[in-house]
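Reposting from the mailing list since nobody answered there.

I have sequence plus structure tokens for a pair of proteins and want to know whether others read the tokens the same way I do. The first protein:
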Amino acid sequence: MKHLFKYSRPYLLHCFVYCVLMCSCADKEIINSKELPDDIHSLENLLENDPLEVDQKMAVYYELSKKHRTDHLELADSYTDKLISLSEQVKSKYFLARGHYMKGMIGKEKGNYQQAVNHYIISSDLFDKLNDELWNADALNNIGDIFYNIQGYDLALPYLQKASTIY
């Protein structure tokens, strides 16, 4: 039994150190967005009634823009503008990239394809700097999809090819 304890102790220490390192490397912005309530009313109450840290406020703006995008484009657009403005002030590439991605989605749904492409390009560049390949590929794919849908096939192809190499 003593022999078993001798080997498990370094293993436990290794596991503890690994857990501490993983927690310290976790993206605080991602953690905060997972801790938010799911419903719109509760999210809006957070903005009105709770003193939020900046990263939490950006996470709430992002969640509200996502939730309003299907039914209230103007409201989603307003929350996205607030997200982009705040993320520029505090230099949060994480939320800035997601804000521009959301503006691309909103622009596409409004039929403003030039605006959508511009925002997707900005988000793609930011996702690339963040080494977030999946979001980058999605942004590039969305650009290609817009060009494809407006019959700009020659413009669509490079974006779709680049997205497929990243995927």
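The second protein, same order (residues first, tokens after):
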Amino acid sequence: MELGETLEEAVRREITEETGVEIILQGITGVYHNLSSHILCFMFRAQYVRGDLKKQEEEIENVQFVTFTRECVSELITRPHMRSSVVDIFLNQCFHLTSV
């Protein structure tokens, strides 16, 4: 996050910078604490708005849009900690963001 930026603004900016697409955030699906590295991971549900996917050549082998189903999560997400947080999305719990 940059100084003065809200969490929503930071997520939208990072997604656009890293992928080239614009999104609308629909809410938070979970907050996860990585005990080994003391990091909080926020997971969001988002809707694609526009833009073409771009690939970070030095970091990524391939990019594509995929339709997630609960059945294909284990095939598409190989890291167990990420897999469990993605499965939480299918529980249909989405906490809407509000300004305080």
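Reply #1 (J.P.):
I read it the same way you do. The helical segments are 7-19, 73-76, 80-89.
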